Amino acid sequence: MIDHDRLFKELLHNFFDEFLEGFFPEVFAALDLSHKKFLSEEFFPDLIEGDKKRADVIAETQLKKNRKHCVLIIHIEAQNTHQEHFPQRMFTYFSMIYLKFRKPVLPIAIFSYDGVSDEPNEFIIKTPFLNTMRFRFFKMELGKMNWHAFMHSNNPASAALMSKMNYKKKERVAVRLAFLRQMAGLQLDEARSSMINGFFETYLNLSENEVDQLMKEVHALPKDEREQVIKWPNSFYDRGLKKGKAEGKTEGKIEARKEMALRMLQKKIDLHTIAELTGLSIEELIKLK
After folding, report:
1. Could you tell me what percentage of the chain is helix, strand and coil, using 3-state DSSP and rounding each to the nearest 5?
2. Where do the structural domains in the chain lie, given as residue ranges?
3. How far is it, in rounded angstroms, from Cα 181 to Cα 123?
4. Which of 41, 57, 99, 249 is the most buried (most CB within 10 A)?
5. What's the superkingdom here (predicted)?
6. Helix, strand or coil for residue 53?
C-alpha cells in the first residue's frame, strides 16, 4: 500500500521553495525564504470523523516587504482521496494553526487522486440572519493539470508531480522522458535524486516494453543531452538496468535497487524511507550496511 502522505510530505519538505516557485509564483516572489523554518506538524482533532490527523507541511517565513512586521505561516495539505467535508477539515486545521501561532496563515490543498473532479476551496458558515464566515484556500487539482505545461520547467517539484498530472496512457513514456531530461540538467545530489526518482516511479512506473521504447527515444536525443540523461544517477535504474539488458532484466533491477539503497544509506536516510523507495526489506538493507 502506497504511503501517499509520507511521499508528498517528503517531497514538499525537500523542495518547498521549488514547489512555491513552480505552482504559486506570486507567493514565491513575495517571500523571503531565507528565513523559512519548518514547524512541527501538529496532530489536530478531526471533529468530523472523531480521529486525529497530522497536518502535512507547516512552514514559517517572512514577506520581503515589512518583513519585521509580518510573519506568514504556510500550511500545505496533500489529499489523495475525495472527501465530502474536506473544506471543513481545512478550516479546522487553519483555526488550530492560527490559535497556536497567532500569525497569518496561507492554506494550500493539493488534490492528487486519479481522475478529474471540481473540488470546492471554501467553507462558509451562515445563519438566516448573517453569513458569519467565508474561509478560502488555494487548491491544486493535479488530475486537471496538463503535464505539457511543465515538461520544460527545470523545476524538480513540478517535474516530480507530472507523474500525477493528466496524461494519456500512450504518453507515459513521453512523461518519463520529460522528467529524466529535467533531472539530468538540474544535477541534484544523489540523495535528493534518489528521493525524487522514487516519488516519480511510485506513480508512473514503466513496463519493460515502455522502458525499451524510452531507451530508443533517449538514444535519439542530441549527443550531449543523451549522455547527460544516461549518466543521471537514477536513469534506467542506473547501471543495474543496463546490466539487466545483457544479463537478465530481473537481476539488473535488483542490483540497481541495491546500488540506490547504498547511496541513500551513505546519506544517512532512515531505513524505513529507503525500504519504501527501493522495495528492499529492512533485513536486506541491514545486510548492505
Report:
1. 55, 20, 25
2. 4-144, 148-288
3. 41
4. 57
5. Bacteria
6. strand
